[in-house]
Amino acid sequence: MDIDVVVAGESLPIKVDDHFRMDVDAVVEKIEAFLSRKSFPMEGLHLKELLPRMVQGIAGCEKGCPADAQSLVRRGFKAYDLTYVEGGILTARYEIKPGSTIEIKMFPEF
Length: 110
Prior knowledge:
By secondary structure, this protein is of the alpha+beta class. It has helices at about 25-35, 45-60, 70-75; strands at about 1-5, 10-15, 80-85, 90-95, 100-105. The longest helix is centred in the N-terminal third of the chain and has 14 residues, at about 25-35.
């Protein structure tokens, strides 16, 4: 699975070898380091909760999408704008501060 984090027009690609055993803490650390270089706060992002839910939303798409993505989008998650894109892509957008957003995209591997 691939994760792409976009902030202020800059992208941070993250490769996850086994989405069922994703090291959430390691992924969050990479995102935190990326955001700190841009002086963006981590407060309110709830990444340790969001990322596993996104994985659950797209994991298993090889057996027919969406796995649980549409349900996650309907329920929502905190202040994120969640979107399911054909092909099993799940996107979460969050306004970090006025005029600045973080966009997290997860792509399943088929």
